[in-house]
Amino acid sequence: MATIRSRLTAWYSAALLVSLLAFAASLYLDRRVSSVRELDERLAIEADFSVGYLENSYRVLGKLVHLRDGIPQLDPGVANFFEGTTSREYVVVTDPAGNVLFSSEPAARLGFSSFQRLRAPLVPVPTERSSGTFTFDPSIGPVRYVIVPVREAGPEIGALIVTAGDDVVLFGPGALLRSMLISLPLILGASIWLGYRLAGPSLKPLTTMRREIEAISDGQSLHRRLLVDSSDPQMAGLAASINRMFARLERSFTALHRFTADASHELKTPLMVLRSGVERALTHPGAPPESIEALDQTLEGVNAMTELVDNLLTLARADEGRAPLALTPVDLRELVTDTAETAGMLAETSGITVTFEVPEEPVVVPVDRTRILQLLLNLATNAVKYTPAGGQVGLELTASKTTVEVAVRDTGIGIAPGDLPHVFDRFWRADVARSRSGSPPGTGLGLAITKWIAEAHGGRIEVQSRPGRGTQFTVTLPRETGSAVDGADSVK
Ligand code: ADP
After folding, report:
1. Taking the alpha carbons of 242, 246, 251, 257 in that order, is the dihedral positive or negative?
2. Buried-exposed string 418-449: b where 16+ CB fall within 10 A, e elsewhere
């Protein structure tokens, strides 16, 4: 999840990595340049000292080169001195013809080609002091050198080369790079961890605000507002904007509910007048048969409209919080039995069997009798309506210590899995052609009202269905008033 927290940490880490790399690179480059300078200064001093030593030794000894096994070599005393002072450097002394008179221990250990490269600038004997960099094989690395012609140490001495790698410099670039490669990931890892930890508290107000918004927008609490914390101007501005949006939403919802409630209420009386007029005309002894058929259809339409208006009024009042429940202790076995009988009468003509099962003990629960009866009738009439002839509808009441459950199941046409999440939506109806022919079309509000009734009692309603096999609606209600059933608001 690309949360703000992880995004902030990622950006912060990237910025840190870039600045660390820039810092490390500049430090490394600077160290490389200054270490070459340090090396050159050190080599110059060593070379001058060695030349001085050769010249002084010549003045004292008079002869610095002796033949050993027929090969001219530097005086052993002088050679020993060089050996003692040049433990890590390559030092080579040649005669004017370029023959090697002395090579330090490390130089003698060099491979043939590397040694030849070291010797090359001494043949022919240089006339000027010079310096530069040798690159031997990668295991040795680059090496700085200084070549100095030796003029006052007798005719047998030609020149001298002194070299040193950057490992002789105190904390050279190589050492710096190594320690940076170790410390950089550690610093980066620690900073990412710290950044992630720090991002949490700074985003906490947002998390708290999100929770508050969720609680307000659950559908029941639109009158509540977010806390405006004036100590944090940015969050306070955000909370104030969201509060203004909630206020506008609340006004729109209230107006919408009020309009629906008022319109439904206003429609009730004219519909009643219309209905009694049609009924009077129908029962008029002199009514011609062709008018009776038309009047019958009109009465059916008026009845459907009255049902729709009643349902709309119920939902509008529920939304406004103006549909209080009149809770009284009711034995639910009675309501289930009554519902099964009514459904049985409806089902008679279509050859559907309606059965019911209730416990032997009374199941007394504080409920609004009329509403629960409405809920059960909605489910049972739907079950009959959407079950083909010859099918079965069953009602079952079960009770546990804390809850009661009413299951209404049928062997009807079922509901497609994709439609299941919508069955409780207002005005939602599956393909009308699927309902049993002959049954009057519904309004699509029955299940929305059923769900509201269950939830208003602190309960919940669930549906399971298999197309072509049947459907089961299960209503769970708490046995005590006010103790909500777990997950009561999980069915939307
Ligand atoms: P209606 O008045 O159309 O029955 P409801 O809200 O009661 O409205 O039901 C909504 C829709 O859910 C129905 O149109 C129907 O498609 C589907 N439905 C409800 N109960 C059943 C059932 N027992 N079997 C199959 N479909 C059902």
Report:
1. positive
2. eeeeebbeeeebbeeeebbeeeeebbbbbbbb
- Give CA–CA dist 73/85, Å, rounded: 18
Model pLDDT, residue 1? 46
Which helix (H) or strand (E) element contains residue 10?
helix 4-61
Contacts of 236 (CB under 8 A, 6+ apart): 228, 229, 230
Residue 325 CA to ligand 1 center (angstroms) comes to 25
* Position in ligand 1 atom list of the atom nearest CA 383: 23
pTM of the model: 0.59
Reduce the DSSP state of residue 73 to 3 states and report it.
strand
Contact 380, 448 (CB under 8 A): no
- For residue 101 and ligand 1, the question of a CB distance below 6 A is answered with no
Taking the chain (492 residues) in runs of 10, the rounded mean pLDDT of each run is 75 88 87 80 88 91 86 88 76 89 86 84 86 77 86 88 72 76 88 86 87 84 86 89 94 89 90 93 86 91 92 88 89 97 92 96 95 96 94 96 96 94 90 56 88 95 96 95 54 34
Contact between residue 281 and residue 294 where contact means Cβ atoms under 8 Å apart: no
Q: Whose CA is nearest to atom 13 of ligand 1?
A: 429
- The pLDDT assigned to 433 comes to 54
424 CA closest ligand 1 atom index = 6
Ligand 1 atom nearest the C-alpha of 423 is 12
How many residues make up the chain in this entry?
492
Ligand 1 midpoint to CA 378 (Å): 9
Q: Which residues pair with 460 in a beta bridge?
A: 476
| CB of 410 sitting under 6 A from ligand 1 | yes
Closest residue to atom 20 of ligand 1, CA basis: 382
Q: How far apart are CA 209 and CA 225, in angstroms?
A: 11
* 386 ligand 1 Cβ < 6 A: yes
Q: Is 394 in the pocket of ligand 1 (CB under 6 A)?
A: no
Is residue 311 within 6 Å of ligand 1 at its C-beta?
Answer: no
pLDDT at 392: 96
Which residues lie below 8 Å from residue 270, measured CB to CB, with a gap of 6+? none
Which pLDDT score is estimated for 169? 56
